[in-house]
Amino acid sequence: MNAILKNKRIILGITGSIAAYKSQLLVRELVKAGADVNVIMTPSACKFVTPLTLENLSRNPVIVEMFSGDIQSGGAWHIHTAHVCDLMLIAPCSATTLGKLANGICDTALSVVATALPLQIPLLISPAMDTTMWMNPSTRRNIALLEKYGIIIIPPAEGELSSGFTGSGRMPEVDVLIEYIVNTLSGIIPNKRQLADTQSFESDILVKTDQKFSSLEDKIEKAKWTAELELTKMKNDLNLKENFLKGKTILISAGPTYEKIDDVRFISNYSSGKMGYALARQAQKAGANVILVSGPVSIPSPEGIVKIDVESADEMYDAVFNEFYKCDIAIMAAAVADYTTVNPFNGKLKKTEIGEKLILELQSTNDILASLGSEKNEMQKLVGFALESNNDIENGWKKLKEKNCDMLVVNSSNKPGSGFRGDDNTITILLNDGSEESFPTMSKDGCSLIILKKISEL
Ligand code: CTP
Q: Is the C-beta atom of 399 inside 6 A of ligand 1?
């Protein structure tokens, strides 16, 4: 645990949300790390977890009622409490408390302390609620305002919600919250409360996407936020049309290939397989029968998906062609080696035998995508990927035509939030009707959903 937490005084606000159970674990971890934690709960929070538990875990009295006789020390208890901490975090923060803080409504002990918090003390908020509440325009407006005030919003995670639905709105896990606290205390995440532009609030009853962003980082942040919103809207939409790929069989290739040099060495690339596996997961969720042909990756096998493991480009070619005739859609997301060794060595090559230079003879592999393009029937849809380091779109169009694809997904190898290994990607989709659409950086799961939705519409 990070030493920066030692002796730090942290006010933890807890509001009425099922996620309050995680706050108990958070208190335990913070106390373990040497922090002095003061918990303030709203009355609704007490319906989910008890002040007694939190008192025991934090080893401090818990404040719930703002007029309770126990805390009135000559009045102004809220001011004294707020002034002596290093950081305040509200986790989980309900839609109600977001609304109160955005509008200065001080009718609970928690909202009064948060409002009394001096500007030099950072305030972090971890909203937690169902996706529909998270997407509600009033919540969006309140979040935009709170960010405008310089409050640090910890984006909710995605996943299963207590309502049984799936979407954005979960409170992130304890380690994520602690990372935010540590990064804020150490200045990596700056406290912007003092810089809040109090002059322009009148015109700022805007959603976050309309805010002014200046630096490149801010622009990326804005683009990601827009993408998140779009994606959540799309997911809600798709939830209504659940199983939009039902009855379809989709063949997906993923990961790198290994081209053998000798028994212990190979030529490969940095592909992690994350994009192909995300496509496989999302296609399965959308009701498709998925066949995944995977090069060597360290991602666990997705449950319920037929997976064929291969190593070399040649093996991938054979596996893909064995399955292709069954498929309605093929998505070639693998980073297939373009060249393979002509005579791989049996055993291990020895330096003493090779000498100073090792010259490998390589020959081009079969282009799997191009071969599928020339074999596919009219009903089959073919999607390729293009990884480019420059002239992305121009090269993408060339590949789409040359390989006879219905869709080509262009991603860049040298832009932040794009390409191999990371969890995010920045894609442009080209369609064989000549249309093209670029998307902001988003998770590979998000990109997959967009790609699959587009295919389902072809
Ligand atoms: N591809 C393939 N078989 C190969 C090489 C590539 O099926 N032997 C597929 C990839 O799976 C991807 C698409 O072709 O869907 C484009 O791959 P990319 O590496 O971007 O381009 P290349 O065609 O290999 O051309 P270059 O490396 O010169 O850009």
A: yes
